[in-house]
Amino acid sequence: MPLLRRGKPDETPPPVETTAALAGELRHPDPERRWSAARRLGDRPGAAEHLAAALTRETEPRVVEAIFTSLARRGGEESAPHLFPLLRSDDAALRNGAIEALQTMPAALAGHIEELLHDLDSDVRIFAVELTRKMPAAPAPVALCRLLDRETHPNVCAAADDVLAEIGSRDAIPHLQRCRDRFATQPFLPFAIATAIETLSRAAH
Amino acid sequence: MNRRDLEHGSVVVTDDDVRRLCEFLYRQTGMMFAQDKRYYIDRRLAERMAATASPSFSSYFAALRANAENEIEHLINSFTVNETYFYREDHQFRCLTQTLLEVIAPKKQPGEPIRIWSVPCSTGEEPYSIALWLLENWESVDKYEIEIIGSDIDTSVLRTAEAGIYGERALHRLPKDLIARYFEKRDDGFYHILPEISRSLQFTRANIVDPAQTALHRNFDVIFCRNILMYFDEASRRLAAENLFDSLVPGGFICLGHTESMSRISALFDACQFADAMVYRRPLESS
What we know:
The structure holds two protein chains of two kinds. By secondary structure, chain A is an all-alpha fold. Chain A contains 13 helices and one strand.
C-alpha cells in the first residue's frame, strides 16, 4: 500500500515573538520573512500602525497583499485611520488595496463616509462612492443621493450613478433626474443616468 | 415591464430585480444564471424571502448584501447541490494523475512523500476518492509514498470520515467492481471502506481562515479546496488564500470548485489551464 499515514501534525505552538520584533521583520531584506511577519501581525493588537508604515516602503506585491489582509484582520477601529490617507496615494495598488480593506470595515467606514464624500479631491470622492457599494446600512443610498444634488464633477456623479443602480431604490430617481438635467450637455453621463433610472423604476417596491 | 408574482402571489419581483440578484450571485460565486432559468431562480428566491420574512425584494436584497444571519450562505446553498459523493468532479482527479503528479513526482527525493490535502473534507468522500483514484489510475502509484490528509472545521464530520461508512447514494458514481474491491457491504446495506484504506489516511481539524491552524498543515504538493471559498466574504477569502498559499510547497497546486476562481480572490497564484481542469499554482519562486 503506497498510501502512508504519518503522525498527527506537530501542535507545539511556535515561539512567541513580540510585536516589536515582528514589526522589525517587516524591514528584513528577505521578502519571505516580510511576508511571514505581515501575516503574523494580523492577530496582534496594535500592529496596524506598523503594518501601515511598512506599506509606504514595501515593493513586493505579495507582501503588500498580506499587509492589507492583516490590516483587515485588525479591524476598522484600529486600521481604518491608517487606510484613509492611502486613498490619496499616487500608487494605484495602494489605493485599491485600501479600498478593498476599508470595504471590510463597514462600521468604521460609516462614521467617515460623509467626510470622504465631501473631500476636496474628486478622486477621493470617487473612491468614497465605491466604498459605499459594500456598506450594508441603509444610509449609503441616502448619502449618495445627497452627493448627487451637490456634486460638480461628472466623474463623481457617474460613479454614484453606477453604485445607486445597484444598491438604490426608486427614491433615488428624483436625485438622478436633477443630476442628469445639470449635466445635460455631457456626452456620457445623461445616458448612464437614464439607464440607472430605468433600472430603478423597474425595481419593485 | 415584466413583473411576476413569486410562489405565493404576494410578492412582486421584476426582471431587473432578478438581474441584480444574478449579478450579486455572479460576483460572489462565479455562477451565472440567465433569464431562461427564471423559474429556477424565482423558486429559490421565494424560499429565501419567505425564510427571512422579507416583505419585498428590496428588503431581502438589503439583508443579503449585509449578509444578515449568514444569508449569503443560505442563498448560495439554495442555488447549489451540496450533496457530496465519491468521484465528484472527477475531472480534477484525472488532472491530478495525468498532469499534476507528472510534474510533482519527478522532483521528489527518495523517501520524500507526495502530500495531498483535502480541506474541507466533510465526511471523507473526497480524500477517500483521491486515494481510490490514485490506486486505480496512477501507474506510478507504487513508486512513491503518498500522504493524504483530510481536514475539516467540524469534528463530528471528521469522526464520520474516520469511520468510513457510506450509503449507496454516496457511492453511486463508483464502478461496481471498484466498490467490490474497496468496500465491505454490511448487513444494514451500508458500505464500509476497507480498513487498510481508512487507516492510511489522516483526518485532522482545521479551519482554513485560521492561520494558526493552517500553520500546522504545511508542505503540501496538492490541495483540494472545493466549494468553500464561495461562501466566504472577500476578507475571509483573501485570508484563506494566503493560508493555503503557505500550506503549499513552492510549485504546489490547488484545485477549487468549478464555480470558484482564485484569480478573482488573490494574485498570489498562477492560473494553469490543463486539459482536464483549471488549477492554480503557487509560483516556484514566490518572490
